[in-house]
Amino acid sequence: MSIEKYEITDDFLSLTGLVIGSYKKNNWSKRELHELYDLPLNDLLFGAQWIHRKYFVANEVQMSTLLSIKTGACPEDCSYCPQSIRFNTEVEPEDLMPLGEVIDAAKKAKSAGATRFCMGAAYRGPKDKQIKKIIEMIKEVKSLGLETCATLGLLNEDQALSLKNAGLDYYNHNLDTSENFYKKIITTRNYSDRIQTLKNVRKSGMKVCCGGILGLGENREDRVMLLKSLANMPDQPESVPINNLVRSPGTPLENEEPIDMIEFVKTIAIARIIMPRSYVRLSAGRDEFTDEMQALCFMAGANSIFYGDKLLTTRNPNYDDDQVLLSKLGIKSEEKILK
Question: What is the DSSP-derived secondary structure letter of residue 116?
């Protein structure tokens, strides 16, 4: 299968399920996704660009800023996470951040060009008394004219509804990897726990931010199954963060071999093709990418980044470096959020 020069062939349209109108395909098979991975890179990028331009402005990226509002001492054993209390890492536990500090960080993010402000807390799942404090943060950040997002761990239905009523726009809860490989990365919560939280979030009326991590030691089959799970949700996630593993000292994955970068780019392109209306975000691990690698990811259909010097507890490119890169590429910050 190939894509002819300057045109999208019937075979490619059939494979991607793309038709005119608002049709969304959510019955992707393993075979179809493996066929996409097997396409020549230039063909895959060309198809991803064509689809990207159908649904989004070509040279704009949505910018989000992520702040850790409660750091460390997490009881979970996620093998990649330096915030787990089970691993000997350099992360110092911190209690829930005071409201004033959160507001100051949100103002700084907005002035730097971010349109969405994400708040992350290292919980297995928040207690109701913690939710009440976070609701005040959501209301204040919302009043600044920013979109709001939170990632707080597992949520029940009542908690999800409380956050929605407070004005939370997005809730982030990643699948991380395939259901099969998941058991090798995390043992303290089940894959089904994550699915249930996503159902609770969707039922509340909030938008879903859900993606995964590449470079955990998974194989291509695991990446196929992760993408299949995301794209085949009854309603595809509005935001899909694709993380590159940050190999944090003290975690079980600190010496894991990095994923091949062409494979990473292909995964971005396939996410764009199979979830055409979703924002595909370059997330953790971008600090390790060259400018050329990031340019390839944007060409593959990535149209969102985390913007700011730090993501929770890990490094991120600084503001100035991002501004220089985006200027060289002719990419601007998205000012109007796509509805």
Answer: E
> Which CATH number do you get for residue 324?
3.20.20.70
* Residues labelled as active-site residues: 74, 78, 81, 118, 149, 209, 281
Is 5 part of any domain? Answer: no
Query: What does the alpha-carbon distance between residue 27 and residue 49 come to, in Å, rounded to a whole number?
Result: 22
Q: Which two tokens stand for residue 278?
A: 């979703």
Whether 76 contacts 242, CB under 8 Å: no
> Which residues fall within 8 angstroms of residue 64, CB to CB, at 6 or more apart?
114, 115, 116, 117, 118, 149, 281, 304, 305, 306, 307
Domain count for the chain, please give it: 1
Contacts of 319 (CB under 8 A, 6+ apart): 112, 307, 308, 309
How does pLDDT run across 320-334, given as a tens digit for each residue? 787 888 889 898 877
How far does Cα 194 stand from its chain's mean position?
15
- Indicate the DSSP class of residue 113: T
Q: Is the pLDDT of residue 155 over 60?
A: yes
Q: What is the extent of the structural domain holding 51?
A: 29-333
pTM of the predicted model over 0.90: no
Residue 223 domain flag = yes
Q: pLDDT tens digits, residue range 20-54?
A: 334 567 889 999 899 999 999 998 998 899 899 98
Task: Please name the residues in contact with 280: beta carbons below 8 A apart, sequence gap of 6 or more.
Answer: 240, 242, 268, 271, 272, 301, 302, 303, 304
Taking residues 296-305, report their average pLDDT.
Answer: 93
Tokens of 24: 């969304």
